[in-house]
Amino acid sequence: MLTFTIRRLVLAVPTLLFIALVIFLLLELAPGDPMAQVPLTVPPEVKEKMRLALGLGEPAYIRFWKWIVQFYWIEPQVLFDHIFGTHFAEGKLRVISWQTRSPVMDIVVQRIPQTLWVVGTAYVVAILIALPIGIYSAYRQYSWFDQLGTFVSMVGFSVPPFFSGVLVIVIFSVNLGWFPSIYDTTLKVVDWDSFMLQLQQMIMPVMVLALQITAQISRFMRASMLDNLNQDYVRTARAKGLGEYTVVMLHVLRNSMIPVVTVIALGVPAIFGGAIITEQVFKVNGIGQLLIGAIQANDLPMVQTLAFIFAILIVLFNLIADVLYGILDPRIRYD
Description:
mainly alpha; MetI-like fold; Peptide/nickel transport system permease protein
């Protein structure tokens, strides 16, 4: 397992380099000009100097190489300096946002906690709800619980976040007045009252995200459980006199979790993409809103860095899913 993990990590480097090249070329070929936001009163020669200051006067391959060095080499040094108090990255040029003129990773680090509060909580809540629903729906196939779960899952999977988000705002914020419609990112949790305020403003965005995730995972869990409940080893375990709880929760559930692990692992980076819409609806000052603002301002360093971070998450959680396969099923070997 260790050898497999190391081999996959080594192979991930050229994979990520190729993804970085694709992202850079797509943004390079995309229409738009960073100078479009500059007022018309600025003389053309000043705009040209500003363009050169942003590095746009250099060839594309030079700019790509500089970005790769900054992301792969300088930014890890900045993190190392921050943790251990060293000065390896002092004076070195980092990835700079064209919009804010500040390091991109500093802005990302500031926004990540807000996204994790919402996305992380929604994902944990969704998994805790989806797995029991999927298990019981499969065990009680075609019962009223299964029919209700199927209906709710189809609704949750079909309704997009931009519609369900506005709907819950109208119901719970405008009509009932239970929860705030706008997420206050300046709120700091220092006591019980501030914790309750944080909980209140998290309920609606977490509800919207968790509904979609629960619908997907519960359907996969149900289908996987149904496939295993009819296997020969289940009939053998029951014939040996094992209790129904032991058969379902130990034998069937463990084998059923193998395909579900893929959905859960790969859903982590995917939900960050879904959070882009949700953060816009609820005004959560997180990664999603940062990406939308960077796209609107043609801030290419910010856009390509965030897109590359999403790619890293996908590669990383692919590896985590493969490792979990071997833990759940001892028959799987990586020799």
